[in-house]
Design a protein that fits this description.
Layout lengths: L1 H32 L35 H6 L5 H9 L1 H4 L13 H13 L2
Helix pairs in contact: 1-5, 3-5
Length: about 120
């Protein structure tokens, strides 16, 4: 029984360590890909809306940011799968968006970035 508990505890520790590594890599991806236009703090002001609290938020709804009409009408909920689709090809996911980002095509960086965004709350 103790052996099973040790194995289970080790698996939890391994999963927690992997998640921590992903969020660290995600923070680096954010700095390299997103921070030019987006803030990671509540109320942060840049060219794009703050991404603090973005996971679970509805597109085009952050108070204080002037979204395009198309983004306001998109009605997307920024879940990890929706963020993945959007971040790979923003102009394809929301045609007419004013976002000038070509997309993130490295799956590992994308997963890490989304794991990091989920911590911003």
């Amino acid at each position: 029984m103790a052996r099973i508990l040790n194995l289970a505890g080790g698996m939890v520790l391994l999963a927690a360590t992997a998640f921590a590594a992903d969020t660290s890599a995600g923070q680096k991806a954010f700095q390299g890909q997103c921070a030019i236009c987006h803030s990671a703090v509540a109320g942060g002001k840049k060219n794009g809306p703050s991404l603090y609290g973005v996971v679970g938020r509805t597109s085009g709804t952050l108070d204080g940011y002037s979204y395009s009409a198309i983004m306001k009408k998109a009605g997307l909920t920024w879940s990890p799968p929706e963020l993945t689709t959007y971040l790979v090809a923003p102009a394809k996911a929301v045609p007419g968006t004013k976002v000038m980002y070509p997309g993130l095509h490295d799956a590992a960086k994308l997963d890490a970035l989304i794991a990091y965004l989920a911590t911003l709350k």
